[in-house]
Design brief:
Layout lengths: L3 H8 L13 H8 L8 E3 L7 H4 L10 E3 L13 H5 L6 H9 L12 E2 L4 H11 L5 E2 L33 H17 L15 H11 L4
Parallel strand pairs: 1-2, 3-4
């Protein structure tokens, strides 16, 4: 008797999974019994997986692959130094890109229009990594008034922490608090907006959460 998962699996036109879980018994068993058939596999972020991982879906009998990714962004994470030297961290996408760069029948199609960042932010990566080919088309929905600058850099000299911790910085936390408080007073428009704060360390994140909890 088929369970609910099997019924959903057999009736679905599109199945989303990770590369590792696509060869789980839940999917592979029906494949072996000719109860399930896939015609196409789309691998998103195909440059962030090693070549061996991207070949796993071949076991599903798929004969058409569409790789979506950007070889100028993060490669696969490979910690072993010997494996890195042998090129294990290079993706199938990146290898195809290298081999077909000068071919007229290059199978890789580049998307030239970007909507995720303002032209001022896009300018440096566009010149450095994409030969100036990107065209910016920012969409202003729920526009903040007065308009903020695309980006600002604040250089804190001799910033640190009282306990000399390498993973948190109280002076930077205070700066962020002041920035948030200033934005709250500065932005008078009725639009709904959110602010994201990114830090590489959990200790700094927890320190930030404690200090900005009173800001709404």
């Amino acid at each position: 008797m088929k369970c609910a998962e099997d019924i959903l699996l057999f009736r679905s036109n599109v199945i989303c999974t990770t590369l590792n879980s696509c060869v789980s018994s839940r999917i592979m068993d029906p494949i072996r019994k000719d109860q399930l058939k896939f015609s196409c596999c789309i691998i998103d972020e195909a440059t962030q997986c090693c070549e061996a991982e991207s070949l796993l879906p071949i076991q599903l009998g798929i004969d058409k692959f569409i790789l979506v990714g950007d070889p100028q962004q993060l490669p696969a994470v490979v910690c072993n130094k010997d494996a890195q030297k042998l090129g294990y961290g290079k993706s199938l996408f990146a290898r195809i890109d290298d081999n077909f760069k000068e071919h007229v029948d290059n199978p890789i199609k580049m998307l030239y229009e970007q909507y995720r960042m303002k032209p001022e932010i896009c300018e440096y990566p566009n010149k450095t990594f994409y030969d100036g080919k990107l065209k910016s088309f920012p969409i202003h929905i729920n526009k903040i008034i007065p308009e903020l600058k695309p980006y600002l850099l604040f250089n804190l000299m001799n910033a640190g922490n009282e306990d000399n911790s390498a993973y948190k910085n109280s002076e930077e936390v205070q700066l962020i608090y002041n920035l948030l408080d200033t934005l709250k007073k500065y932005i008078q428009s009725k639009c709904n907006y959110t602010i994201g704060i990114i830090t590489p360390y959990r200790a700094q994140k927890e320190l930030l959460i404690r200090h900005i909890s009173d800001i709404r």
